[in-house]
């Protein structure tokens, strides 16, 4: 590959979650403490501290039980995030220390998208 210039060369990715019901998905992510910026009635951005975290794309025929989409949020304190989500009434698992060196928990949104949250031990 040739030189592309001297600018920033990092790659930034954004997960796109399929969601069966856009209103329901946006309510879930708002309850989790994120901001939502709707692009239109079929697409929205989930924001954290002013930055895009992930995208939501309307997929009305989605079967949540068959959905295999997921994201891993690598955070400073899994316990803090767990308490935040639990206090919001979201369906979180227990926090566990994994043998691979992470302290983590998980939850699924109403469309079956997996959200794993963890910190280095």
What does this protein look like?
This protein is of the alpha/beta class and 121 residues long. The protein has one domain (15-120): 2,3-Dihydroxybiphenyl 1,2-Dioxygenase, domain 1. Helices cover 17% and strands 38% of the residues. The chain is built from two helices and eight strands, in the order βαββββαβββ. The protein has a four-stranded mixed β-sheet, with helices on one face. The protein has a four-stranded mixed β-sheet with strand order 5-8-7-6, covered by helices on one side. The termini are far apart.
Gross geometry = globular
Oligomer: single chain
Strand content: 35-45%
Q: Biggest sheet, in brief?
A: 4 strands, mixed
Quick structural gist:
The protein has 121 residues and is α/β, with parallel strands linked by helices. It has a single domain, classed as 2,3-Dihydroxybiphenyl 1,2-Dioxygenase, domain 1 (Roll). Helices cover 17% and strands 38% of the residues.
List the main descriptive attributes of the protein structure presented here.
2 helices, 8 strands, alpha/beta, 38% strand, globular, 17% helix, 4-stranded mixed sheet, single chain, 2,3-Dihydroxybiphenyl 1,2-Dioxygenase, domain 1, 121 residues
Write the layout of secondary structure elements.
Elements lengths: L14 E5 L2 H10 L3 E6 L2 E6 L2 E8 L11 E5 L3 H10 L8 E2 L4 E7 L5 E7 L1
Parallel strand pairs: 1-4, 5-8
Antiparallel strand pairs: 2-3, 3-4, 6-7, 7-8
């Amino acid at each position: 590959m040739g030189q592309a210039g001297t600018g920033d060369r990092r790659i930034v990715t954004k997960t796109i979650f399929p969601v069966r019901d856009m209103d329901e998905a946006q309510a879930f992510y708002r309850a989790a403490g994120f901001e939502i910026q709707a692009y239109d009635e079929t697409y929205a951005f989930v924001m954290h501290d002013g930055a895009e975290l992930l995208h939501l794309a309307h997929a009305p025929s989605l079967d949540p039980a068959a959905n295999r989409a997921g994201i891993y949020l690598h955070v400073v304190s899994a316990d803090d995030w767990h308490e935040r989500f639990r206090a919001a009434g979201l369906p979180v698992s227990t926090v566990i220390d994994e043998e691979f060196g992470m302290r983590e928990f998980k939850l699924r949104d109403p469309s079956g998208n997996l959200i794993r949250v963890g910190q280095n031990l």
